[in-house]
Model the fold of this input.
Amino acid sequence: MAKSKFEYVRQFEAHDECLPHCWIVVRIDGKGFHRFSEMHNFVKPNDDRSLSLMNVSAEKVMTDFRDIVLAYGQSDEYSFVFRKSTTNYNRRASKLMTNLVSLFASTFVYNWTKHFPDTQLKYPPAFDARVVLYPSNRILRDYLSWRQVDCHINNMYNTCFWKLIQDAGMTTTEAQHRLKGTLSGDKNELLFSEFGVNYNNLPEIYRKGTLLVRSSVQETATKTVPNKNGDGTMEETFQRKRYITETLYTDIVGDKFWREHPEILG
Ligand code: ATP
Ligand code: ATP
Ligand code: MG
Ligand code: MG
Ligand code: MG
Ligand code: MG
Ligand code: MG
Done:
């Protein structure tokens, strides 16, 4: 196509290709979900409908972006890890990030009624996104550990906080005051002695968040091919690899998971 005299304006576009050989992480996070969760009557501290809607939205993202090797989600956030050598969108940060976050948000809305059949969506939710590059496996693992430890700390706090409000009848201010300065052991003890709750028996999805990993399964498929005589067709079976997304609620801070899945970090 002929170039117009206006073409030069393209030169003003920023080049934002991600550094080679680095893990590309896109983290998205719900905008103002504190309010969003109240407006849509989320069960506190953990609404299963929202968690499953977040998870199906992340699965859709993983299905469409084949170079994502792993995703980790908790609360209103999800981190997506692209393989180090991806050439998706020529590694352009803004392209990767905006395509990913808009697909996530639209899938979240698209599937809303399936997960919240009795709750009308009151306004369109938004998600922010950022791209972070990690130059080594160790630092990528530390990033994921950081998110999972955050999940653990918040969940423990929120579990105590909402028990004090829902079961002990405290106001939010009283509950905050009661928890001020408490350590993890104190919170465990509070849950056990005052509410008979063993924190370690709470569902793993609350305590550890959700991990999506791509794994391959070998399967037998059939295809139609010309028959030996060349006068018709026949069915032939063949082996193929099919990629599936596996959902895990497991510890990713320690070495065990990584030892069992050496293929992820390559
Ligand atoms: P920001 O726009 O800065 O992210 P935010 O209100 O979304 O603001 P976050 O730190 O992201 O703040 O926290 C998300 C909040 O959304 C949680 O604190 C919690 O109140 C709520 N939330 C998210 N997921 C759930 C869930 N599954 N069940 C109950 N509440 C949830
Ligand atoms: P990419 O993902 O690279 O943007 P694309 O298929 O969206 O791929 P564009 O260059 O953005 O390519 O072009 C958008 C195309 O969408 C148009 O070429 C046209 O075929 C179609 N399209 C968009 N808006 C309309 C419209 N209002 N009516 C009919 N067709 C439309
Ligand atoms: Mg925030
Ligand atoms: Mg948020
Ligand atoms: Mg958040
Ligand atoms: Mg285009
Ligand atoms: Mg287009």
Q: What stands out?
A: The first strand starts at residue 23 and ends at 30. Residues 29, 75-77 surround magnesium ion (ligand 5) (CB under 6 Å). The domain at 17-210 is CATH 3.30.70.3000 (Alpha-Beta Plaits).
